[in-house]
Amino acid sequence: MRLDHVPRLVRTVRHLRSSQLWWRTRYLVERKLPLLPGRHTSAVPQAVPLREEGVPWIAPFHRLGPTGNQAVECLLAGDFHHLGRTVRIGRDDPDWERGGAQAGRLWQITLHYHGWVYDLAEAAVQGDARALPLLQHYLEHWLAACRLHKVGADSLIWNSFAIATRLGWWVRALELLRRGQAALPPDFILRWQHSLSRQAQYLSHHLEWDLRANHLLRDAVGLAWAGRYLAGRAADRWLKLAGELADSQAVEQVLPDGGHFERSPMYHIHVLEDFLTLERLVTNVPAQRRLRETCLRMAEFCRWLRHPDGTLPLFNDGAHGAVSLPGEILERMAHEGWDVPQTMPRGLKHFEQTGLLAWHDNPWTLFWDVGDVGPGYQPGHAHADTLTLECSFQGRRLIVDPGTYGYDRDDRRRYDRATAAHNTVCVDQADSSEVWHIFRVGARAKPLGVDVIPRRSGFTAWAAHTGYDRRPGSPRHARQLSVEERRVVRIVDQVQGHGCHHLEGGWLLAPEWQPQQLASGWYVRSGTDALRIRIDTQHPVHLSIEPRPWHPEYGVERNTQRLVWRCQHTLPFEMVTTWEPVG
Predict the structure, then answer these.
(1) Do 522 and 414 share a structural domain?
(2) Nearest in space to 23 (alpha carbons), one of 210, 169, 199
């Protein structure tokens, strides 16, 4: 590490809990000293006891690739498809590491979640005779090739989050095959169940106390699946631990307003799916009660958390197609007997603890991020996007977040997290929060003075943040957002402080909108809808329309355009942007 990066590292780790540092150190030492407890269990297949009552049936919430006959066709060719990409890893002798080089780390670790095992089990139960032999072939090969002692296995294959997710797909697949009376060779089933038990044992000794947040919750889900499928003292311990984790994490991770503390709409859904699963699996009655109350609060948050097209805003890390849509999860909850409204709300909602403002009315849907970047000890999914916004007009996505392409240390990751890529103001070409590496954050922007005032036919809201206080002249960005009569949206950006600074901002358009440069702003059109965007300021600013990438899904890049303004000016600075419908 370079010496000039040490202060950034200090600004990053000073927010961590001491327990996180202890657990991370323990796991790092374990990799060097592999004889520590919990790393080794018997590799010789042994019969494992199963619970006589079976497992509660919990259908998958969301699938990341093709299903049914289409899944079988892909896998017959040696093609694995998920997260928008197809990679041929081979059929006869699969290369379980090939995806990392071709499609990135996220694609490869998702391969080891084993959603494809459930896909093949489902196809077999539905009558596709090719599916069971294919399932046995691939899983036999994986069990032999992806052992714990394989070099690099700790970070991908035997990564705790991957194990926990895999346990869920495996138990679902085994239960589906049992109910569908689909026969596999007994010796293969024994090896499969033994590996399941071994992985649960390993997981129980490698809970992600170093990361916490959604990772620790997923670990609980994995233990709950294994604890409800297997019998015996170890399985009882896993189930008890899962209940304790579910109870504590419901308190720790879900804010009083129902939002998830990582402040990512996508991870909010992801976590809600896990809590709903745990509510069905754990046997701890007090934990079940807390989980029900938690899920109801999270569901109400979901109800506000959708554009007219049904999709999520993509604040912080987020991608379409990676989790259930808000409407889908609300519909499922209602079908399962939960008392949750499904209708799209209207009007204004300020989620104060999460720091999210939502407005739903004709013709505007607006989401404004006025919250912390995430929990202090785990902002890994944060972007430097404080005071950014997304909106739809007349039911069409208009201003979009750059999204998240993947979790590799590359230019796309840096772009997706950068302040300059978001719909806010960037000072001196620096990020408002010090995002670096893949999931790290040093200094963080802190929102200030958030104030929301409802009006008769709209609202006015105001917020500022401290993200640039550390820079010379202590520039401070403040923004006022208003929905006014005549369907006009007005945004006032101010930068207070001292000295001359480079200021820039702009608006990333959804690809279907076509912009045109005007003398004092822009004109945008999509089909029969059009808006005039007017810039009013006493300071000379340069306006432009520039091509930009948009990452609406993992592994997907689309070309779009950004309305950009820039200036070099001595503070203070103020600019008003007015979005006015035409016609």
Answers:
(1) yes
(2) 210
